[in-house]
Amino acid sequence: MDLALELLTVTLTSPWVYLLIVVAAALDSLAPIVPSETLLITAATFAATGQPHPAGLVLAAAGGALLGDLASHLVGRFAAAGVGRWRRWARIAKLLESALTAFSRRGGTVLIAGRFVPGGRSLATIGSGLLGFPVRAFLLWDGIGSLAWALYSTGIGLIGGTLFEDRPLLGVAVGIGIALAITGSAELVRRLLSLRQRRRTRHRPRFGNLQTRDVMMEEMSQTHVWYVSYGSNMARDRLACYLQGGRPPGAMVTYPGARDGTLPQAEAGIDLPGTIYFAGESKVWGGGMAFYDHSVPGPTPAKAYLITAEQFADVAAQEMNRPPEPDSPLERLVFDLPAGSSHSVGPGGYETLLVLDHADGVPMVTFTAAHGSADTEHTQPQEPYLAMLRTGTAEVRAASGLRLPAAAQV
């Protein structure tokens, strides 16, 4: 025991301990089996006597953690192209869905909270890469989280080392015990809250069950949707390419069309409560793509088309650069989600489904990106795309008939 303590003391009081902390903290993001937090707490326990220096441990841990997290983020970006194939495995699909949902709701704060949740660090960093979270924003939020984690772990180690200055191994055990108790308590509270939410959801009546409709509207509410377009699909000729196939003027892609090429049964101009912004690079037009952000003050003009759920799924598939396929989950998902909810089906630009409202029981749906306007870099759209947007906006203004309601919040 004395020999083991002597070896541990020599190792942790050597200047090489800082490099050891950097490497362990970096590897822990890519390989969560590396016990970087335990190593940092142990080193901080010995730091209570003055060597190593606590500030050096904090800097080494934060720097190593940020470096490893950036590597995980880049892995996520590299893997994003093939993420669709991974969804055949239920566990991976569940992890991806958790990351996508978290980032769509809380953005960069997930990177901070993920450091203090078991398994959350790798999930948050790789998930941010899969979503295309901007690198500059990633470095800011993850840097804050890495520094907070380094201060927290070093502080716990110092407490143990100060309380048991003459018995460093006991101080290490106390420090690790404190960390486990805090993490365990936080995880228990999270699970209890999650269980409570599931129970509430299970007993909450569906929106459709609260409505009274005649027979025709009841049937339509289970087969049709109001597809709300805020981008180039506001132009009816542009939407026709998604339904009947073809290439829009100025575009670089020819669309296969939907399984049912019937044109919309009705259309109407509406006002959405948010606004649009341009980001990414369009494979169809070049330059930025239009996305919808409900959290930014609006309103913004949009057009609602009455089409079948099957047609909507096919339009969404083509927006996601996928071929239309039978039995798409979107065909039922649009009816299962309550008004005001969102659901990410993938990491791509138009893979987050929004249920805006209901009009006489028929869902009003659209799709956008999981990120918001403030969470990504804006890009300039090309002129052919802007021309199509101007055409669609003019059609919206000229549209007559019912101006359908849209939810105040999504």
Summarize the structure in words:
The protein contains 15 helices and eight strands. The protein has a six-stranded mixed beta sheet. Strands 3-4 form a two-stranded antiparallel ribbon. A hairpin with a 2-residue loop joins strand 7 and strand 8 (362-368). The model is unreliable at 1-5, 200-217 and 400-410 (pLDDT under 50). The protein is of the alpha+beta class and 410 residues long. Helix 2 (16-30) runs parallel beside helix 4, helix 3 (36-47) packs across helix 9 and helix 13 (309-319) packs across helix 14 (330-336). The protein has two domains: 2-202, no CATH class; 216-398, Gamma-glutamyl cyclotransferase-like (Hypothetical upf0131 protein ytfp, Roll).
Helix-strand pattern, N to C? Answer: HHHHHHHHHHHEHEEEEHHEEEH
Largest sheet: 6 strands, mixed
Large-scale geometry: elongated
Helix content: 40-55%
Strand tally, please?
A: 8
The computed structural class is: alpha+beta
- Residue share in β-strands: 5-15%
Overall residue-averaged pLDDT value: 76
Distance between the amino and carboxyl termini: 61 Å
Count of individual domains: 2
| Count of alpha/pi helices | 15
Unreliably modeled segments? 1-5, 200-217, 400-410
Cross-sheet strand order for the largest sheet: 2-5-1-8-7-6
Radius of gyration: 26 Å
Short characterization:
This is SNARE associated protein. With 410 residues, the protein is α+β, with helices and mostly antiparallel strands.
